[in-house]
């Protein structure tokens, strides 16, 4: 729950739905006046652990913590994205992409498996998600607008997870791991 009594997960879903449907939102933070907002991307702030949204009010770039919303409503107007967003590395052409992760659970206790599954089910950044049980683990499938933004989240699972799709995300992870391996080899 947010301080205003709204369900946090519902807010994230509404914002992601507006991005997918290319719609503006009417948002209100606290007691401020409602503002028409074109959402561009939902991102996770790894310092405070909360999700933020970035987008536009008119031509002004605006970002805020999602849990500060007191009201939110999707409009019928198309959202407006300005070309200078690329300077801020904001994905303007963000469209949902499928991610497939395989969790290798051979060495994981049943107690830890249930905590891990609860963590996957609680995750709200993904537009759609599914967990399938396999012989030695799980296959986690989801759709998200910016798969590369999920790399820190994926890395948080350590050696338990393997990226199956998209191949570009898998290649980026391999390149980062090879760089880390070289750096740590230099230290020893």
What does this structure look like?
With 188 residues, this protein is α+β, with helices and mostly antiparallel strands. The protein folds into 2 domains: 8-88, SH3 type barrels; 97-187, 2-Layer Sandwich (Alpha-Beta Plaits). The chain contains 4 helices and 9 strands; from the N terminus they run H-E-E-E-E-E-E-H-E-E-H-E-H. It has helices spanning 8-21, 110-122, 151-155, 167-187, and strands at 23-29, 35-45, 50-57, 60-65, 69-78, 97-104, 128-134, 137-144, 161-165. The strands form 2 sheets. Strands 4-3-2-1-5 form a 5-stranded antiparallel beta sheet. A hairpin with a 2-residue loop joins strand 7 (128-134) and strand 8 (137-144). The model has no long low-confidence stretch (mean pLDDT 81).
**Tally of strands:** 9
Strand composition percent: 35-45%
What structural class should be given to the helix and strand makeup?
Answer: alpha+beta
Radius of gyration: 19 Å
* Main beta-sheet strand count, sense and barrel state: 5 strands, antiparallel
Order of helices and strands: HEEEEEEHEEHEH
Ends: how far apart?
A: 47 Å
Organism: Exiguobacterium indicum
Domain WCX: 101-180
Protein name: WCX domain-containing protein
Pfam family, one: WCX
Task: Give a brief outline of the structure.
This protein is an alpha+beta fold and 188 residues long. It is built from four helices and nine strands, in the order H-E-E-E-E-E-E-H-E-E-H-E-H.
Q: Which terms would index this structure?
A:
2 domains; 9 strands; WCX_dom; 4-stranded antiparallel β-sheet; alpha+beta; SH3 type barrels; Alpha-Beta Plaits; WCX domain-containing protein; 5-stranded antiparallel β-sheet; 37% strand; 188 residues; globular
């Amino acid at each position: 729950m947010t301080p205003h009594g709204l369900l946090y997960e519902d807010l994230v879903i509404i914002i992601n739905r507006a991005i997918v449907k290319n719609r503006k939102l009417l948002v209100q933070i606290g007691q401020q006046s409602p503002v028409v907002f074109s959402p561009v991307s939902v991102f996770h702030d790894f310092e405070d652990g909360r999700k933020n949204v970035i987008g536009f009010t008119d031509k002004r770039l605006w970002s805020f913590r999602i849990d500060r919303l007191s009201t939110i409503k999707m409009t019928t107007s198309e959202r407006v994205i300005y070309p200078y967003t690329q300077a801020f590395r904001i994905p303007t052409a963000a469209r949902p992409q499928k991610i497939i992760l395989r969790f290798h659970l051979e060495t994981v206790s049943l107690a830890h498996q249930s905590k891990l599954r609860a963590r996957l089910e609680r995750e709200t950044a993904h537009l759609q998600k599914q967990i399938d049980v396999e012989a030695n683990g799980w296959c986690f499938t989801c759709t998200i607008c910016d798969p590369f933004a999920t790399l820190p989240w994926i890395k948080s699972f350590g050696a338990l997870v393997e990226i199956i799709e998209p191949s570009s995300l898998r290649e980026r992870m391999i390149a980062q791991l090879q760089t880390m391996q070289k750096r740590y080899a230099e230290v020893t």
